[in-house]
Amino acid sequence: MARLRSDFWVSAYLRRCAIEGVEAVLRRRGSAEAGAIFVKLDHLDGTASLFAPAPQLFVEDRDERLFSAVILNGTPLDVEERMTREIRFDSDLWLLEVDDRAGRHFLDLAPGT
Predict the structure, then answer these.
(1) What pTM was computed for the model?
(2) I need a surface site. Which of 33, 43, 53, 70 has the fewest CB within 10 A?
(3) 52-67 burial: b if 16+ Cβ within 10 Å, else e
(4) Is 54's pLDDT higher than 60?
């Protein structure tokens, strides 16, 4: 079974956040078919976290998207600086932003991350 296209996954993810009452927005649209997806989580207390696609080691033979935490409870500026570097490296990536004081992100995390 093939992995879901990035645009479909993003649409479903944003809908899931809305259903759960969590504010989430699309900040950057990437490649519809296979763009990497990054999720910034603003904890609304002056800290933020960043989740990126998990390393290939964790996603081999899996159809679902797994994520790993790149920055946990850093500053929003830390996240923005990292994303600036990521966009320079891969201009086809997606960036979603979630605002939730409880830290809910609804992502499947890779083991050990």
Answers:
(1) 0.92
(2) 33
(3) bbbeeebbeeeeebbb
(4) yes
